[in-house]
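**Archive record**
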Amino acid sequence: MILADTNILVDFFNEPSKEFAQVFAKEDVAICGVVQAELIHGAISEKLEKR
């Protein structure tokens, strides 16, 4: 089982790669409550922060 952090999930969804997709397809992927809250709440990207 893989415990995925927020930055890994955000990177994957912003720029999906075959490598990540293969790992996610082959392994059980879990997230903790903090990561879930960060994903639900959302985070301001550095691009938006500079505006």
